[in-house]
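User: Run a structure prediction on this.
Assistant: Running it now.
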Amino acid sequence: MKINKPLLITKLKATGVHLSLSIVVFIYLAYKIYYHWYPQPYFSIDGGWQGIRLVGAVDLVLGPFITFLIFDLRKKRKAIIFDLVTIAVIQFAALFYGVSLTYNQRPVAIVLIDEFMVSSIMEQYGGKLESEAVLRQYSDEKPPIIYAHMPRVREALAEVQRIKIDEKVLEHAQMQLYWPKEDFAQGLKEKQTVFSDRMDFYESRDAYEAWLQTNGKSEDEVLVARFSGRYGSTWLVFDLDGKLLSYF
């Protein structure tokens, strides 16, 4: 099969220009995803890495690939313009979908409830959360780290279950259970025995001790909680006032 070298060079140049522009867009989106939507450790274990791969596939692969396939300067001017518009529409639509999905799945809160620490996304609030800004009253962290206290009174517990079943809002997204940020540290302290046992169960004691040694801390100076992300788990470390220090 004979290769049309001038056409190939033209296609490669057009693809190169498209790829260069796509890289600029990708760098911006990657920055937003990594530093704002899924800051560490959530990027690695709660969907950020999956989101950035999706955006990269659309922005860096799909668009330039379509350009390489259909761009041809031998076509008439109107045909070339039509091709460019088609490429832009396809890539924008796919990129909008990928970015929207990544943004909507970002953790808007990290919730400690019972003996579990999990992330909450906007849709889990069942439309009762008007804005994620509402959650900032419970924590100064980004995303907010919140303590949710499950009631022990039968009537209150029954209401939690009713909301879960009828309104499809899981316990960790029921804001009537959230404690004020001033009480977060106390709620976390009450869970330390449980998390200490789990540290042994998950064989994380050595990593914890290594973290303490590296950071010049003792066990009496910090609080810990195991965070279970959608794609992995990690241990969060707080000071005695409930401020997030690090993770391991």
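Helices lie at 5-37, 42-45, 48-70, 77-104, 154-166, 184-189, 192-201, 205-215.
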